[in-house]
Structures are given as structure tokens and as C-alpha cells.
Amino acid sequence: MNEDGSVCNKILIAFQDNDQIANLKESVLGEVFRLDKANTNHDENIIKGLTWSTKYYEVRYDLYVDTFDDFEEWCKDLISSEYDDLREVLSGIIVIDSYTMEKDKIDQNKLLGQLGSVLQDKFFVFMNTNKDISQDVIDELNDDNSMQLTSDSGNSVEIINYHNVSNLKLNQYNEKIGFERVREIIDTCEWSGGHRVQTVEAKADSTDVDLESVFNRLKEARLKYLEIEDEDEREQFALEISNEFAEFLQ
Amino acid sequence: MTQIKYMLLISRQGKVRLQKWYVSLPNNEKTKIIRNLTSIVLSRKAKMCNIVEFGDHKVVYKRYASLYFVCGITQEVDNELLTLEVIHRFVETMDTYFGNVCELDIIFNFEKAYNILDDMLMCDGSLAESSKKEILNHVKTMDTMEHNDHLDRVLS
């Protein structure tokens, strides 16, 4: 909860601690969260007071940045009851690590499944930094039943490639990939609080606005405006009318 | 002839974004169908068949980007391929209405998506209107009436 009483959401992002971490941090924080290195200290562990904006809403959130040496250990810590409070306040988790297709794959899948199962109604993204895994393999992994371990709770991990080797913008399902997909997942996650921004409503193509009716209504509005004595009230009325007409004419 | 039993829209994250039931079922039965279908449909791979036998009926689904459109159909009456066309027409109509529709558009304008669906399918699940142009005209008329109503409210 913020000082003004509004709810502040939290996203946890965890990087594997290696010599690439500075580059990874910069690109993920820049591409996904639009955090410019010039304006934000990427070395901070908690970046507060950020705003996530879409064409429909704006919401405030804090970004928790973490690193790990051993994913298994980090995962087990986060699953443990000691971290119940932290998990409770999170809107979602993004893990940036290399996905392994070799013998320890099952353990990695198992860990992802375990973590996903304790993240009810929160998004969970695993960003794979392993260049050898193609987009088609990632799609298959995501389709694979073993990755949908937590579908009962309406939650599952989604693996997304960090590197866009093929330079594609969409996968075989016409779904966004890479950073854009991470943004899409965050866009549609369940935030707390937030407010809707004034939007231009979607509307079917049409040019046949009844102008006569618009003018009649304008006349009517002007007469009513002139009748209002209180200046503030008049201004308020004028503002409401202009908004309504703008929407009507779009 | 179509007699769709239900139409569900499920996201890749397993969230139900739209649900329309054309048969009367108790709530717990609906929840069970949604839960089972979510795990069945999400786990199917790209090259698998889009028609699945499910309990006493068939399910036809199609994936568009990160959204799965799932229809339960009456086996004796419905044609599976026609159902796929109904789904596609619904998606095309939403795409034209919203202009490259995405999940967020549906979340924040779900009533418009339901309006389009209601124009296409009658309350018994049969096809009422197949023309995209006609459906968009109807929805546009509803939008105009809604805006007029807002204006009237401000002016009154």
C-alpha cells in the first residue's frame, strides 16, 4: 500500500548471476519495462514507483530485481513458507536463465512446475537465454502437457526465448514472441488497483454521422450552458459536453 | 444447421475471457467442463486435430495467437467444419471491429465481444447471422444508440 492509500503491485524479476548479467539486465529492463539506464539505476534491487501503461489502464508497481547462482536453490527458497508473504504480494515472476534440453531437463521442468503451482493467479515467465533452442522447440515445450502442470489452478509457466535468432516477430500461431510477448503477458495479468485511462472506443468503420442531429444537440447544449449561472458548473458542463461530442463524432 | 452448446474463449495462461452457454447446465457442471477443457485444449500441439471427443459431445477449437476459441457441439446436428467457420467469422468480425483484436481489447470491451457473438448465434446456439457486414452494422447502431443515450443523460 502506498502513502496515498493506493495499492502498489510488485513484479519479481530474477537473473542468473553470470558475466552476461549486466547486458541481460539492461536489455530486459529496457525492452520489457521501458526503463532507461540514464534515468534508472539498474543496480538497485528494488525499483519503486513505476507505472505500467496500456491503452486501457495505468497501474503503479515496484520492480524487485534479484539474482541467483543456483536456480534450484532459489526456487526452493521462494516456494518455502518463509516467502509466503512475498509471493502473496507479487503480481508475477520473470526468471531469466538458460533452459537446458539435456538430462537435467526433467528437474528444471519439475522446479518450474512446483514454482508455478504456488503462484496462483500470478503470471510466471521463464526467459530462456540458450540460443540453441529454436522458437519451434519453445512452442512445443509450451504446448507440452508437462509444462501445463498447474493448469488446475489456472496458472502455468510460459517459456519465452530471449534471443530472437530467426528475427521473426510472430510464432507459428501468430503470437508475439520475445520481449513483446512478455509485455503482452504483463498487460493481461491480474493487477490490484489501477485505473482506466480515457480511451477511444473501438468502433466499426463508419462515416455516416447524422450531422443535423449533432447540430441540434449542440444548440440544445448551448441553451442549457447559458442557463447555468454558476461559472464552475458551466465549465464542468462544457467539458462534459465536449468530451461526449468528441466521442460521438469519432 | 448448427446447434452449438457453448462457446469459450480461453487464454494461453488458462484464463477464461468469454463464455457463452447455449444449453442449460448447473454451475458445477460448467466449472467442470471449463477446467477439463482448459487442460485438454492448452496441451494440444499445433499439428493435432482441432476436433476432440469430449464426454457425450464433440469439441471444436481453434487457436488465434494466444487465444483459444472452443465450441462444444451437438454431434448429430452440427458440422465440425462449419463450426470452425463460425469461430473464424467471429474472430474476423472482432478483428474488423477492434482493428487487429488482441486479448486486452476483449478483456476491456467484453460486452462488445458478447454483442458480436449474440448477433451471430441465437440463444439456442444456431446461426442467426453469417454476414460480417450486417453484424458490424448492428453493433455500430447499438454504439450510436449508446452514445446518444450518454448525450441525452448529460443534456437532461
Structural description of this entry:
The complex is a heterodimer of chains A (250) and B (156). Chain A has helices at residues 21-31, 71-79, 84-89, 105-117, 135-143, 179-187, 211-227, 231-249, and strands spanning 9-16, 46-53, 57-68, 90-97, 123-128, 157-161, 195-196. With 250 residues, chain A is of the alpha/beta class. Chain A folds into two domains: 9-195, Rossmann fold; 201-249. In chain A, strands 1, 2, 3, 4, 5, 6 and 7 form a seven-stranded mixed β-sheet that branches. The model of chain A has no long low-confidence stretch (mean pLDDT 81). Chain B has 156 residues and is an alpha+beta fold. Chain B has one domain: 2-Layer Sandwich (Beta-Lactamase), CATH 3.30.450.60. A five-stranded antiparallel β-sheet of chain B has the order 2-1-5-4-3, with helices on both faces. In chain B, strand 3 (51-54) and strand 4 form a beta hairpin. The termini of chain B are far apart. Classes of the chains: A alpha/beta (250), B alpha+beta (156).
Q: What's a quick, concise take on this entry?
A:
The complex is a heterodimer of chains A (250) and B (156). Chain A is of the alpha/beta class and 250 residues long. Chain A contains eight helices and seven strands.
Count up the helices of chain A. 8
- Overall geometry of chain A: elongated
Terminus-to-terminus distance of chain A: 38 Å
Number of structural units classed as domains of chain B: 1
User: What's the count of strands of chain B?
Assistant: 5
* Biggest sheet features of chain B: 5 strands, antiparallel
What structural class do helix, strand and pairing data of chain A support? alpha/beta
- CATH architect. name of chain B: 2-Layer Sandwich
CATH architectural arrangement of the largest domain in chain A? 3-Layer(aba) Sandwich
Number of domains of chain A: 2
What fraction of the residues of chain A are assigned to beta strands by DSSP?
15-25%
Straight-line N-to-C gap of chain B: 47 Å
